[in-house]
Amino acid sequence: MRMSRKVRITALLFLAPTIIGLLVFRLIPIGWSFALSFYDWKIFDTPEFVGLKNYAHIFASPTAHKVFLNSAYFSAIYVPGSISLALVLAVLLNNGLRSSALFRGAFFLPYITSTVAVTLAWRWIFSTKFGLLNNFLGWLGVENAPAWLADPAWALPAVALVSIWKDVGFYMILLLAGLQTIDPTLYEAARVDGARPIQRFFKVTVPLLTRSLFFVLILALVRSTQTFEITYALTNGGPNRASTTLAFYVYQNAFVEFEMGYAAALSYIMCFILGLFTLVNFYFRKRWVHDG
Rounded to an integer, what distance in angstroms lies between the CA atom of residue 170 and that of residue 110? Predict the structure, then answer.
């Protein structure tokens, strides 16, 4: 049945705010920033077309190489660390006890807590002389505890640790939702067959949770490329760019150095890398994700 002209106009009017918002705040900025990546523009100067010069500069820059390595290192810590911890917490809290709701809320609370408040607390924990962590290590007999945020070897792992602590509750909730869709009779059958808890975990829980794990993996990969607030508040990318990741490097070039064209090129390289990893994950999805 064809819609009348009045119905079509009414539908368009209702859709107009969403369509206009999508164009103004999404599609037009995406296209404009892609075009900007081919220009040399310092905001207050006239844009100058430079072609692929920004991209060539990125691939030739030792600083950019270091930032890419930092980003890969951060992802290597954050993605498996957050997913593994979230899975463990979800399994432990997947029961009917009344106290489980309290613990679920407690683990989810950091995710909705202000990042500034989180980083202020963790800066005190990581403090070299008066921090809770180093005092605890000293109590265990560890001498010369690291200066977590001032040591190039520990700054990025410290940022990754705080990021995992803040986000793990969100991933836990997603995995917990997946766990609650698993038929309990499957566990009963495995128990009758003599399967131990660890065997039930790897033979029943993990295979039936792979769809949720795949979804969480994609989210964690995306999140690992967007680390900014925690880096900015904890280390400001230091020391000596040891904790500078790609998203923070984009911010520095765009809003500190005002190299808008270079920052736009960095952004599109980041999007390309993220898209490539996402496609690879979708390609291998059939090999380990059980849809049944």
Answer: 9
Q: What are phi and psi of 291, to 5 degrees?
A: -85, -10
Of the pLDDT bands very low, low, confident and very high (cuts 50, 70, 90), residue 287 is confident
- Please give the torsion angle defined by the CA atoms of residues 284, 285, 290 and 292, in that order, rounded to the nearest 10 degrees: -130
Using the structure block, give the residue that is written with the tokens 């997947």.
94
Give the Cα-Cα-Cα angle 208, 212, 214 (nearest 5 degrees).
105
Count of other CB atoms within 10 angstroms of residue 270: 19
- The pTM (predicted TM-score) of the whole model is 0.90
CATH number of the domain at 53-288, out of 1.10.3720.10, 3.40.440.10, 3.90.740.10, 1.10.8.60?
Answer: 1.10.3720.10
**Which one-letter DSSP state was computed for residue 284?**
S
Query: Residue 161's Cα: distance from chain center in Å?
Result: 12
| Cα four-point dihedral sign 250, 254, 258, 262 | positive
C-beta separation of 134 from 145 below 8 A = yes
Measure the CA–CA gap between 247 and 236, rounded to whole angstroms: 12
**Structure-token pair, residue 157:** 């792992």
